Amino acid sequence: MSSSALFRAAALAGSCLLLLALAACSDDGTDFDISQQIGPDPVLPEPISELLPDMKVAEVVGWRDGETPTVPEDLTVTAYATDLANPRTVHTLPNGDVLVVQSREPPGKPISRPKDLIRGWIMSMARSGGDEPEKESNLITLLRDTNRDGQVDERRDLLTGLNSPFGVAWYGGTLYVAAADAILAYPYPLGQTEITAQPTVLTPLPGGPINHHWTKDLALSPDGRYLYASVGSNSNVAEHGLEAEKGRAAIWQVDRETGAARVFASGLRNPNGLIFHPESGALWTVVNERDELGPNLVPDYMTSVQEGGFYGWPWSYFGDHVDERVHPPRPDMVEKAIAPDYALSSHVAALGLVFSNGSALPAPYANGAFIGEHGSWNRDEFNGYKVVYVPFENGRPAGKAQDVVTGFIEGDQARGRPVGVAIDGTGALLIADDAGNTVWRVAAADGSVTRSPIGTDGQRSPAITSDAGQAPRPAGAVAGEPAPSPAGGSQPPRPSQMEIAPVVGPGDAPQ
Questions:
Q1: How far apart are CA 426 and CA 4, in angstroms?
Q2: Residues 416 and 433: beta-carbon distance below 8 Å
Q3: pTM for the complete prediction?
Q4: Which residues pair with 138 in a beta bridge?
Q5: What's the average model confidence in pLDDT over 95-106?
Q6: How do residues 382-397 score in pLDDT, each as one tens digit?
Q7: Cα-atom radius of gyration of the chain, to the nearest Å?
């Protein structure tokens, strides 16, 4: 290393230590009861101005042989797939096959502020793997449980070399993949174990060069007509200007046939976990809220999503709580802001959401939402690092979130970090663990399974018309029977130009 490089490294290290020391002097809010921030009406303390946000990053150590997460007595947990490369999303196809989306952040994100450099340095120190070369990521792997016994019998990489994929959906012989900058469409009949055809571009999505929140999730509408795509903000609170937020901090509606796209809802800083409720038909999401207002602001949340709805970002949070950092102020936008349905506590980094209706899980978990909480890095005490369950009634949250899958963190060390969640083809819960490089399967302890697979998007395989050929259904098994979606076409959709409707949103709001 040259002397100039050594000097720069030393200067950086010294700056990091100084800033970390200054951050340690901030008010850490450790006397705050975070349970007050779980539910429809969270307690919101006064904002705290910070020179540098609190940072406490768990060292990722991975899972040793024989170690698993912890679940209640009426559940059992096993490793469904291991030796993966940053699994982010799990998605069940209508025939019961499971797709695991593995991805890493796109390279080249510019560093605009000193805190970005510090955070990147700290996060790099916390990654596991030592000096071993990183496995290839940015791929989609198919997992097949042929006899529905909860164990993978066949594993194939369907797609490789993708641009930081995250969300997937399947309909009518086409697999849709949300990469960092576009929705791609691949011809894919159910049951195939490879994809060789080149994709078409259904619609571009906002991408680089910043692409601050790069994960784009997908959900299919119950009638199969539309795809819904999540596009996170390009900043914490619009510090790059509103032009950089064009079409971002939003959920898009994309016509599956033509690719015509518009902003469906906005003001959602970083939405993920898109899914339709199987009873009400409403679209739901989990959202990562803003940082740098203190360790107990702002709570991440789960919410139903209204067409044309605006949810506050960047001008306000949880309805009309104004963020004074955003200039110029927009009281007209604050007045429009919809308060979210259900707070999950601050900085838990909620990324995955699935409803348990129709699963084979025990009665206490049979009607509600499982949420994957990736875990905090920007508060003095860890928060998240678990999968929680929120009971529902009549399509709405109806109780306190319960810790269901824990043990991902012990002290200052993380064995893993939950991301996406799904219900597999037998009715068990799947959890993508991107730090532990594992997909976990949480099933009923009595061995219950569903009568037949149901896809993540609520579809059944056209080939499955009865229980013939399925594994025997043990006593107590739960059978979900939602109506199948229309069959849809078998041809990939046509590429089209992006059309963003000028609805209310940070980059689209009338000035």
A1: 59
A2: yes
A3: 0.86
A4: none
A5: 97
A6: 989 999 999 999 999 9
A7: 22
Reduce the secondary structure of 447-474 to three states and give it as a string: CCCCCCCCCCCCCCCCCCCCCCCCCCCC
Outline where 337-445 has alpha helix (H). none
User: Would you call 468 exposed, middle or buried from its count of C-beta atoms within 10 A (0-12, 13-18, 19+)?
Assistant: exposed
Token pair, residue 158, equals 């369907």
Contact 502, 511 (CB under 8 A): no
423 near 456, Cβ under 8 Å? Answer: yes
User: Which CA distances in Å does 413 have to 128, 297, 410?
Assistant: 11, 24, 5
CB of 366 closer than 8 Å to CB of 450: no
What DSSP letter does each residue of 84-140 carry, written as one string? -SSEEEEEE-TTS-EEEEE--PPS-----SHHHHHHHHHHHHH-S-TTSPPPP-SEE
Tokens of 354: 């699935």
Tell me if residue 17 falls in helix, strand or coil.
helix
Q: How far apart are CA 452 and CA 465, in angstroms?
A: 9
Give how far Cα 451 sits from Cα of 304, 427, 430, Å.
Answer: 29, 9, 18
Q: Which tokens belong to 509?
A: 């709001």
- Identify the burial level of 446 via C-beta atoms within 10 angstroms of its C-beta, where 0-12 means exposed, 13-18 middle and 19 or more buried: middle
Beta bridge partners of 220: 227
pLDDT digits (tens, 9 = 90+) for 338-373: 999 999 999 999 999 999 999 999 999 999 999 999
Q: Could you tell me which of 370, 487, 459 has the C-alpha nearest to residue 169?
A: 459
Which DSSP helix (H) or strand (E) runs through 250? Answer: strand 250-255
Nearest alpha carbon to residue 159 among 130, 129, 144, 179? 179
Token pair of 185 as six digits: 């469409």
Say how far residue 484 (Cα) sits from the centre of its chain. 25
